[in-house]
Amino acid sequence: MTVPALDLDDDATVGDEADRLRAHVYRLLALTLARPPDAGLLALLAGLQGDGTPLGDAFDALAARAGAGDAETAEREFNALFIGVVQGELVPYASYYRTGFLSDRPLAALRADLQALGFERAPGVSEPEDHIAGLCDLMAALVLDGADDAVQRHMFASHILPWAERFFGDLEKAESASLYRPVGTIGRLFLSIESNAFAMLEGAEP
User: What is the pTM of this model?
Assistant: First the structure.
């Protein structure tokens, strides 16, 4: 599987190209899911290019929709999907997907692991750490910092694998989704690739 090159930042320091691209896909998902995309992010998304694979086709679809859209329309879609009057069409938190409640046991377990890794909540941030954007950003940071494979596998298996593919599948089918439909496809396919890769690593260990 070849992941399309994503020009998301210039500060990737990992030497392995595959890991750099993994980090960029995680960062792309984090950027699109954290807040409504502005004109700059839409322009970046419009420049994505696929590679003829199913994941690459999803990148091409996202690029086409981003290039044809505008920030105001994207903000309305984001709000309908994730904010709403009471709540959006989707609730992008691990606790909600896994237990039906916000700020439940999965969030407590995540906070314990983050503390063990030395991560602290940034001042002024009220968003619970188990938001899908935060988890994708965490994985990007672990990859870029060269975290041990066992650490990456634990965080993925404990806090992303049990629910996030289902979330991205729901995003693909969401009634309010247009720009975000291929984001759902990218997330679902990419996490499947990650899951298989981590399983192979675990199987290769003595």
Answer: 0.91
> Which of the two residues, 127 and 19, has the higher pLDDT score?
19
Query: Half-sphere exposure of 162 toward its Cβ, with a 13 Å CA cutoff?
Result: 15
| Distance (Å, whole) CA 61 – CA 154 | 32
Per the CB < 8 A criterion, the answer to whether 35 and 81 are in contact is no
CATH superfamily of 17-204: TorD-like (1.10.3480.10)
How many CB atoms are closer than 10 A to CB 170?
Answer: 18
- Please state, in angstroms and as integers, the Cα–Cα distance from residue 115 to each residue in 27, 34, 52, following that order: 22, 22, 41
CA torsion, points 143, 118, 166, 78, in degrees to nearest 10?
-90
Task: Convert the pLDDT of each residue in 154-175 to its tens digit.
Answer: 999 999 999 999 999 999 999 9
For residues 112-123, give the mean pLDDT: 89
CA distance 41 to 39: 6
Residue 10 backbone dihedrals phi, psi, to 5 degrees:
-115, 10
The 3-class SS string of 124-160 reads CCCCCCCEHHHHHHHHHHHHHCCCCHHHHHHHHHHHC
DSSP alpha helix (H) spans, the chain: 17-34, 39-46, 54-68, 71-82, 94-99, 105-117, 132-144, 149-159, 164-173, 180-204
pLDDT-based confidence at 15, cuts 50/70/90? low
